[in-house]
Fold this sequence. Notes:
This protein is mostly helical. It contains 5 helices and 2 strands. The longest helix has 15 residues, at about 25-40.
Amino acid sequence: GIVNRPSYSAVGGWVGGISNTSSTGRQRAAADFFSYLSNNAQSLPDVLPNQISSFADPYRYSHVASSEWSGATGFDEINAAQYTDAVREINSVNSVMELRVPPGTELRKIL
């Protein structure tokens, strides 16, 4: 028969914010920082494993081009393709998301 094997998206993304009670200067500085982190030119080198970090967390469609993940990152072409295919699979209508309610941690412990 048919077996449903949804992908599991544990975290589901990143978010940044700043309090509206912060000074205008700090709000602008935070907006500039978030803009810098998320722009195309800067974001790809930050999500690829490198000499500073082995942490990889792509968050743009452009980040999951397997050609970017092979070579200097330590991934060979096959592993790069497998990794980026798996990341793209998470962006599916069939993905299972983490429980996102205030008492979520307590509920997970009970289950």
